[in-house]
Amino acid sequence: MHSIIMFQEHDIGRDISRTVIFFNYYYSSHGSRFFPGLLLEAQFLHKEALMAFSFALSIDPDYVPSMVCMAGILRNIGGNSLSIARTYLRNALRLEPTHHRAWLILGLVLKAEGSLQEAADCFKAAYELRELSPIQDFSEQLPIMLH
């Protein structure tokens, strides 16, 4: 069984609207829910993206990219969501300590919470790991590829 998820993409600068159709085949894979989450996040449909990433984590609770993406959305929401974002990021870094994006978002969360020294340490780790990273993460390029 498969489903078709349609997303409206609106380019404000050119006032062009287009529809992106994404075919999602249901199978037991965290990727089948992770990539739709990226598309939803790129469309600023944060609630729906959180649900997709959460579903991906229900399939594989140790899937670091979903943890990091969920934490990024929760950081943007702010308020009480910051502590949840921090928990996801610490878990992600426990599993993958060289994930530079997790360090960066953790730094932003800690800064928002007022832990400036700890945030600075996270920013430093993110910068150093990013410099050492030879490969560009595909998930970071997905929103650019949709344009």
Give an overview of the whole structure.
The protein has a domain at 62-136: Tetratricopeptide repeat domain (Serine Threonine Protein Phosphatase 5, Tetratricopeptide repeat). 64% of the residues lie in helices and 14% in strands. The protein is globular. The chain is of the alpha+beta class and 147 residues long. A two-stranded antiparallel ribbon has the order 1-2.
Radius of gyration: 16 Å
Report the CATH C-level class of the domain at 62-136.
Mainly Alpha
CATH topology of the domain at 62-136: Serine Threonine Protein Phosphatase 5, Tetratricopeptide repeat
Structural class: alpha+beta
Residue runs with pLDDT of under 50 for 5 or more positions? 1-28, 141-147
- Outline, from the CA principal axes? globular
Largest sheet: 2 strands, antiparallel
Briefly, what is this?
The chain has helices at 31-42, 46-59, 64-77, 81-95, 100-113, 116-132, 138-145; strands at residues 2-11, 16-25. It has a domain at 62-136: Serine Threonine Protein Phosphatase 5, Tetratricopeptide repeat, CATH 1.25.40. The protein is built from seven helices and two strands, in the order E-E-H-H-H-H-H-H-H.
Question: How is the secondary structure organized here?
Answer:
Elements (H helix, E strand, L loop, with lengths): L1 E10 L4 E10 L5 H12 L3 H14 L4 H14 L3 H15 L4 H14 L2 H17 L5 H8 L2
Antiparallel strand pairs: 1-2
Helix pairs in contact: 1-2, 2-3, 3-4, 3-5, 4-5, 5-6
Defining key terms:
147 residues, 2 strands, Serine Threonine Protein Phosphatase 5, Tetratricopeptide repeat, disordered C terminus, 7 helices, 64% helix, disordered N terminus, alpha+beta, two-stranded antiparallel ribbon
